[in-house]
Amino acid sequence: MDIDRRQFVLGALAASCAAVEPAGAEHAAPVFIGDMHSHLFFFGNNTPAKKPLGRSMAAGNATLVAWSLVGDVPWLRITGKGIKQKGQPRRGEAIAWFEDDLARIKQHIADENLKLALTPADVDKALAGEPHVVLTVEGATFVEDNTAPLAHAYELGVRSVQLVHYIENPLGDFQTEAPQYDGLTDLGRQVIEECNRLGMLVDLAHCTDIAARQALEVATQPLVWSHSSVTRTRQPNWKMPVWQARQLSLATAKLIAEKGGVVGVWPMRADVGATPESYAQRVWELGEWLGDDHVAFGTDMNAISRPAIASYADLQKVVRYWQKAGFPGESIHKLAIGNFARVLKTAMSARQA
Ligand SMILES: [Zn+2]
User: Domain containing 179 — which CATH number?
Assistant: First the structure.
């Protein structure tokens, strides 16, 4: 099966800012960049041909980038109120879409001479400056009604699984529609246990607050919330504007941190402001709330309209902002790449298969 990609392109929100890659961004001692959540094949007009991943990563010294396959694209549409479900996959369609899109993603990675991060040793190489891509899936729709497809995904190179996204799936509730399961389902819990056993990092982004808390009870390994932000004042719910519905409560973010996990901050302009500097402030602030071991970048690259961070070169501006502000180099390293690397290695190392 296939989708009409042109329709998505035409229907996309306003085009993202063109990446502006400043010339001559030399660094005496480079700070390498990790990104817990990015896209290349999703909505918008940033096609691989226009924006090849190797060049994007090199322009900002990004060496550990999670490329997220969107597991429910064929069943989504963009509306004035955000992304909504337009249909339900028939049996076999979600795994077919997953395999098809994953093949295209891996082809682009191979064309770009980039390597996959498959083992803790690969993550160490990324930390040392060799670019690696982590294959992740946003919305585990492909599992359908049992956990067996997860081992298949692992064999294909996937190392992180985000439980839910924008369509109904049998794992649990997501943030932007009325909840129907009061959190996770039994299958959702089994998926977490199986990911832990296989050595795949579980990503709670898009889960409702209750689902996230239930996941933390089940998981034997640290979890991530790869992209959005944390609110101290609101209790996010599905009736709010999308970016507010998508936030994480501070109390739940702290539970993720207590379990050794990491929260990624997105560059959503309505939320974090319009510039790399305002984003830098928000990321640093979250580090103060949760501790500097528990925060990372989660750019949602190529899926956010007019983001504060439009390229990995922009994330180097964030690093320079922190350096100029006099923040400790060790903390900068943790936020820039170290925390993502640590939590990914922990999940991979727990493999019992
Ligand atoms: Zn997302």
Answer: 3.20.20.140
Strands 224-225 and 33-38: unpaired
Indicate the DSSP class of residue 338. Answer: I
In a domain, 9, yes or no: no
Separation of alpha carbons 60 and 55, rounded Å = 9
The alpha helices in 248-311, defined as continuous H runs, are 250-258, 269-272, 276-290
Q: Report d(CA 180, CA 185) in Å as an integer.
A: 10
CB atoms within 10 A of CB 163: 31
Q: Is residue 18 part of a domain?
A: no
Q: Which two tokens stand for residue 94?
A: 């979600």
How far apart CA 302 and CA 51 sit, in angstroms, is: 10
In a domain, 25, yes or no: no
pLDDT, tens digit (0-9, with 9 covering 90-100), for 241-294: 999 999 999 999 999 999 999 999 999 999 999 999 999 999 999 999 999 999
Cα 347 from Cα 203, distance rounded (Å): 11
Question: What does the pLDDT look like over 78-125, one tens digit per residue?
Answer: 888 888 999 999 999 999 999 999 999 999 999 999 999 999 999 999
For residue 24, report the distance from its CA to the centre of ligand 1, in Å. 32
Residue 149 within a domain: yes
Q: How far is the CA of 31 from the centre of ligand 1 (A)?
A: 26
pLDDT of the residue at 43: 62
Residues of the domain holding 103 = 31-349
The pTM of this model reads 0.90
Distance 138 CA to ligand 1 centre (A): 7
* Residue 58 clears pLDDT 60, i.e. is over it: yes
How many angstroms separate the alpha carbon of residue 52 from the centre of ligand 1? 21
Question: In this structure, are residues 227 and 300 in contact, taking their beta carbons and an 8 Å threshold?
Answer: yes
Total structural domains within the chain: 1
What percentage of the chain has pLDDT greater than the value 70?
Answer: 90
